[in-house]
Amino acid sequence: MEFTRPRGTRDFFPEEMEKRRWVEAKIRNTFENFSYGEILTPTFEHINLITAKSGEDIVEHLYTFVDRGKRKLVLRPELTAPVMRAYVNELQSQAKPVKLYYIANCFRYERPQSGRYREFWQAGIELIGSPGAEAEAEVIALAYTILKNLNLKDFTMHIGNIGLLRKFLKNLGITEQSNFLALIDKKEHDELEKQLKFYGVKAEDRKLFFKIISLKGNTRETVARVRELFQDREILKEMDRFEETLNYIDNLGVDYSVNFGIARGLDYYTGMVFEIYAQKLGAEKQICGGGSYSLTETFGGKATPTCGFAIGFDRLILALDKDGVKAGSDNDHGVYVIPVSQEFIAYAMKITSDIREYKVCEMELKRRKLGKALSYASKKGFEYAVIVGEEKISLKNLISKEQVEIDISKMKTSLNTGHR
RNA sequence: GCCACGGUAGUGUAGCAUGGUUAGCACUAGGGACUGUGGAUCCCUUAGCCCGAGUUCAAAUCUCGGCCGUGGCCCCA
């Protein structure tokens, strides 16, 4: 084949698009129901926006190019940075909180595999300027509600707290924390042990450290355990705050487990973090990630607490498929209009045009004989055929195969009342 | 960036180990017959060895490289 798709991209045909649009609509409705407004930023940005947020090393995973004005640009690899950039540029003086959502495509130069493409879609939100536990709780509840509304069964939510880890590391005298958080996230415990020793952390504190990051499971027990393990005032304060968030989502009936091993490996996360997995997806099972962070100052704005998440739209679709969720609407099967011969084409076109006022309608455009035309109509899933010939018009139900002659003036009534 | 497996009409496949006919079959699509009522039957047509190099008298078949696909590793903002 001479012309092919670029690697890691996909063509979506009508059948799949119907499903994707259906899922998208559900997500959009839920966002809007929580009073978020849509934002769309440019498909490409200046490369320094991305490197400011994620570091220089990220460049090898980016689609970059230089334009005719010698500007270094990048196809957006995610939407948090662009959205926060736009907020800093234009929305800082809006009434808080500012609630934004997006559903858009992103681009990353990575090796494609199951659930990973070079062009993919993300659906997410940023709740800007609300520092409270109730804000965090609402964000978590929103992610949860979306999956529930889509009827996804196979998913688990895991909630952690980077603030706690940060304070703990600080107590141990470790101020350069990003490396540690990355190792925690990757669960490289051997390397962590080595690093802790390097920093001169005492054996009992090391033990405590590993105890904390392996804690997971039932909320009350886990949180109580952390309280037991620490006497530090700052940490207990962080725990109070964390527990408040958990209380709110308990109250809303959100199902989750606490996991202090979630570190998300990123410098700008400040407190609560969460991830949602669909186990059936295997290696690329994470379908949602988010948490509380602060990024506005990085982009030259006033430091503003923000909480957000992003759903991997393509993975969500895969998860819904594996879960057997039927995505897609019961569509109107429509009407197929067939002129029996050339002289009735004009009349058939007029009838088609009239029917389109109230129903999906397609007309035979290939001048096929009646038999073939009917065959096409039933193959394409039309519910009715209207046969236009001589002085009479016939309405045929393609499912029951019954056919009657009808008066053109009664067409709408017959189609709408579901003639059989 | 790394590893495994794979790549034959639009789709699914046979052929490949043992190089040698005109690369076969099914479905789909287009056309026709059955001379204005279908999902049928019959006939016809379009269309293929991923790309390149090598070995050889001869490559879909063997070798190497590339590209693409699937899955995994790394990574995952």
Specify the CATH class of the largest domain: Alpha Beta
User: Could you state the CATH homologous superfamily of the largest domain?
Assistant: Bira Bifunctional Protein, Domain 2
- C-alpha Rg (nearest Å): 28 Å
On the 0 to 100 scale, the average pLDDT is 90
Strand tally, please? Answer: 17
Number of helices: 14
Distance between the termini: 48 Å
Brief overview:
With 420 residues, the protein is an alpha+beta fold. The protein has helices at residues 14-33, 47-54, 80-91, 133-149, 162-171, 178-186, 189-198, 203-214, 219-229, 233-251, 313-322, 345-355, 370-379, 411-416; strands spanning 37-38, 44-46, 64-66, 72-75, 98-107, 119-128, 156-161, 216-217, 257-259, 269-277, 286-293, 306-312, 335-339, 361-363, 384-389, 392-397, 403-406. Strand 15 (384-389) and strand 16 form a beta hairpin.
Detailed description of the structure:
The chain is an alpha+beta fold and 420 residues long. It has helices at 14-33, 47-54, 80-91, 133-149, 162-171, 178-186, 189-198, 203-214, 219-229, 233-251, 313-322, 345-355, 370-379, 411-416; strands at residues 37-38, 44-46, 64-66, 72-75, 98-107, 119-128, 156-161, 216-217, 257-259, 269-277, 286-293, 306-312, 335-339, 361-363, 384-389, 392-397, 403-406. The strands form three sheets. The chain has a nine-stranded mixed sheet with strand order 1-5-6-12-11-10-7-9-8, with helices on both faces. Strands 14-13-15-16-17 form a five-stranded mixed sheet, sandwiched between helices. Strand 13 (335-339), helix 12 and strand 14 (361-363) form a beta-alpha-beta unit. Helix 4 (133-149) packs parallel to helix 10 and helix 9 packs antiparallel against helix 10 (233-251). The longest helix is centred in the N-terminal third of the chain and has 20 residues, at 14-33. The two termini are 48 Å apart. The chain binds one RNA strand of 77 nucleotides through helix 2, helix 13 and strand 15.
